[in-house]
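Reopening this ticket.

The earlier resolution said the output was attached, but the attachment link was broken on my side. Pasting everything inline this time so it's all in one place.
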Amino acid sequence: MNPHNTIEKMKHLRLLGMASVYHQSLSAHLYRDHTLDQFTALLIDQEWEDRQNRRIKSLIRQAGFKLSVSPHDIDYTTSRNLDKNQLERLLGLQFIKQAENIIFTGPTGVGKSHLAQAIGVTACGMLYRVEYHSTIRLMEQMKIAKLDGSYLKLLKRLQKVQLLVLDDFALVPFDQYARQALMDILEDRYGKAATIVVSQIPVAQWHGTIGEGTIADAILDRLVHASHRIALEGDSLRKKKTLKG
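Inline output:
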């Protein structure tokens, strides 16, 4: 038996974790004291961990986050009305299991998007499917899908996403196509999947921005009621970084 051929076969079979441990066992004799059962378990454990890590990286890449963030980078020291206990409970992701929503509001630069994406990355780490979207761009995508016949397919995909992050929500008034698209998205997800909404606009002003009273009522009923709401305050964190520089 040629050990190097075995390693190449493992790689060909995409058993990359196993290949790594087997290579270490040959080059550094790290596992000479292991029994056959122990070494077999080690190979399997390493392959499992390697596949999990690759899947997490794939989920993060597919989510489309615009920032490279981590929950470990969250700043709890700056005064911005951020309750650490509340956020850490949300990072526990129980809200996803219960198909609840989170709403981050506050002025530009206070870290709303960073917090939302940190939660999204945490969800990917627990193997949840996540998608991050600029609300304006998603509504444009929905409008194009309506025209080219892929609207229902796109709706079905969004329905299956376990955590949907809508950034820059209500920055511009919704037209009739965007209103209907948003209503369709939320209707399909209501009670089945979680949504995070990020907005510079206070929730009290959303009704007017959405427009069409009846539809706005229905959208807000599905989005706002029973949601976890975090209203951030304070100066822009970007401004502080510029001053430090």
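Reporter confirms the inline version is readable. Residues 3-62 form one domain. The CA atoms of residues 120 and 130 lie 6 Å apart.
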